[in-house]
Input
Amino acid sequence: MHTEPPTKSPANFAPPRSHAARNAVWVLAALGVAAFGWRWRDVPGDAMAAWSGQRPLAKIASWHYQLDKIDIPALARRNVDMLVTDFARDGGKTPLTREAVAALKTKPDGSGRIVISYLSIGEAEEFRFYWNPIWKIEKPSWLERENCAWPKAWMVRYWDPGWRDIIISGRESYLKRIVDAGFDGVYLDRIDMWEHTAPLNPKSKAAMIDFVADLAATARALKPGFIVIAQNAEDLLDNRRYRRTIDAVAKEELFFSKTGTGQRNAPVDIAQALASLDQMRWQWKPVFPVEYLLQASDIAAARTEAQSRGLVPVFPTRALDGGDPTTPVALEKEAGTPEFIKDKCLAGTSW
Output
């Protein structure tokens, strides 16, 4: 009697018959389970840390981001859980006093609030206390080029000991001044410079992770519990050491404005960024989107979208001056906007 040959469907496909083949299958399966478990090995401990109150920013439901036109009484009246502001006012010339920082730590209802100082670690700024005008002529070993998108901001070789002394390890370092002023933590900007300095240093990524880790360790030795928030550079979140060093991540232009102010970002870009940022949320650490939008309707929609994902957004002006973001501005004259960059900057001169 004629019979059909057996098919090779998953339902009746025969397993390997040899002992060696069976062992190989079991080894591969075990490795797969181990790899999956290893990737998520921190989740139980991180959950316990969050439940036991070891996530200082876990309860932040609102925040304000302002670096210019700092008015201490006006800032203190902001009814938010966290303030991110500058170390100095008057265009970076006058450091905030301990008394001023202390005043910002009380909300209008009398409850406490977290106050964080902005700190750029991947660029040097001409208006900072450490800047020497002669550097435009005789550059120190760590100084590179000026950023066309943000005039007076200069790329640095952040792995150079000279720059590390200015920011972290010097007797009067920028970090020590921030700690001494009474700030609860730092908001680190231009971490993403590791990408732009790769041609200068093939180990720029590892060097940036080391820089952030060293900064955090130094700060926490001076002030236990010191908070470190990273802005952008979400591609570093694949690194476990980096994730465990920082307390939160802020992300500019998550949903809008990468190529044009108010324009929706490409779906693939949003998806990739969210996938990276979710690694922080699995550690019960918050994500703070920063969106630069001009229309109230866009702000309302972006707020709803971010909050639906468990994110805590903020909507400042591009100038970060505390103003109304819906006030009309000439975008091609506003530093940092895609329109300004397109109008003023040649290829390769902005980052």
Remarks:
- Residues 74 and 104 are 10 Å apart (CA to CA).
- The chain has twelve helices and twelve strands.
